[in-house]
C-alpha cells in the first residue's frame, strides 16, 4: 500500500447535546473546532489535525461494550499522554469523570467518560 494514500483518522462520537459536548471536548481536552455543521454535527481537531473527532447529534445513544478479552482492554481507543499523573490531575480538577490510574506493566492509564457516557482510555 502506498504510505501517502492515507494521512489521518476521523472518529465519530454520538452526543445528545451538541453545544454542551463541543464545549466539553474543547475545555477538557483542548480540541479545536474546525467545522461547525450544527445542529447536526461539529468537527474538532486534535493537535495537528491528523486526528479529528466529529461529534454527531443523536437521540438514542447505546454505548458499545468491548468484548471480554485477556488483554485487559475495555475501550475502543486511547488518548496518549506523556504524563498520565498530570493528565489525570488536570482532568480531575476540571471536573471530568475519570477512573483511577492503573498500571498495566509498561503502560499506565485511566478511563475517561464524556458527558454522554462515551468511554476512552488515557495512557502513557
TrEMBL record:
Cited InterPro entries: Glyas_Bleomycin-R_OHBP_Dase (IPR029068), Glyas_Fos-R_dOase_dom (IPR004360), VOC_core (IPR037523)
Pfam families: Glyoxalase
Ranges for domain VOC: 5-124
Origin superkingdom: Bacteria
Gene3D superfamilies membership: 2,3-Dihydroxybiphenyl 1,2-Dioxygenase, domain 1
Alphabetized SUPFAM superfamilies for the sequence: Glyoxalase/Bleomycin resistance protein/Dihydroxybiphenyl dioxygenase
Signal peptide feature range: none
Name recorded for this polypeptide: BH3222 protein
Native source species: Halalkalibacterium halodurans (strain ATCC BAA-125 / DSM 18197 / FERM 7344 / JCM 9153 / C-125) (Bacillus halodurans)
Amino acid at each position: 500500500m502506498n504510505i501517502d494514500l492515507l494521512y489521518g483518522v476521523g472518529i465519530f462520537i454520538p452526543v445528545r447535546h451538541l453545544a454542551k459536548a463541543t464545549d466539553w471536548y474543547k475545555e477538557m481536552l483542548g480540541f479545536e473546532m474546525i467545522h461547525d455543521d450544527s445542529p447536526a454535527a461539529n468537527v474538532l481537531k486534535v493537535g495537528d489535525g491528523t486526528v479529528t473527532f466529529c461529534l454527531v447529534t443523536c437521540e438514542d445513544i447505546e454505548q458499545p461494550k468491548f468484548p471480554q478479552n485477556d488483554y485487559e482492554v475495555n475501550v475502543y481507543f486511547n488518548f496518549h499522554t506523556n504524563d498520565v499523573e498530570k493528565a489525570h490531575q488536570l482532568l480531575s480538577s476540571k471536573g471530568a469523570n475519570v477512573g483511577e490510574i492503573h498500571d498495566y506493566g509498561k503502560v499506565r492509564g485511566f478511563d475517561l467518560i464524556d458527558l454522554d457516557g462515551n468511554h476512552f482510555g488515557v495512557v502513557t
